[in-house]
Amino acid sequence: MASINLARLLKEGGVARASGAVQEAFHVGEERFPLQGEALWKVSVSSVGGHEYWLSGEVEGVVLMECRRCLKPTPTPIHAHFQHMLRYEPGLKEVVFHEEAEDEYYAFGEPDLDLLPFLTEAFVSEMPFTVLCEEGCKGLCPVCGADRNLVDCGHEVEAHHPLLGLKDLLPEL
Ligand SMILES: [Zn+2]
Ligand SMILES: [Zn+2]
């Protein structure tokens, strides 16, 4: 479980630390981001006075993203840092994000704080929008679907560029 117990910190102040690993994948809604190996994380939570705590951490792993040209799963190293203000509100059943003017914080009410949402958000926002399996990946043939890195199917790609068909659809001016 990716969580940290803050019972002692809540009572005595100071700093609490935890570390661990996320296995297999991160999930956001229906979307799954598969990992190669596991993603390692470490987190510290420091008392900053009153009911406020400063959460600081990092998560590091290799996510498999589809190459944007040939769709091959491509190992993509990610190293993300994150920092958030936390506010302890005893009795609160779940973690709630608050945003008031310049003031942003997560309110929590249980000493066991689930870290997975923080790790997931940091990791996924650090992922690039697209990747290439290698510079110069030749991609899939738009005619027959062959991986042109592996086979030469002989199709003339330029002649089948999707935009070329467009001019037939446009009315003559
Ligand atoms: Zn590729
Ligand atoms: Zn082809």
UniProtKB/TrEMBL annotation:
<dbReference type="InterPro" id="IPR003772">
    <property type="entry name" value="YceD"/>
</dbReference>
<protein>
    <submittedName>
        <fullName>Ribosomal protein L32p-like protein</fullName>
    </submittedName>
</protein>
<dbReference type="Pfam" id="PF02620">
    <property type="entry name" value="YceD"/>
</dbReference>
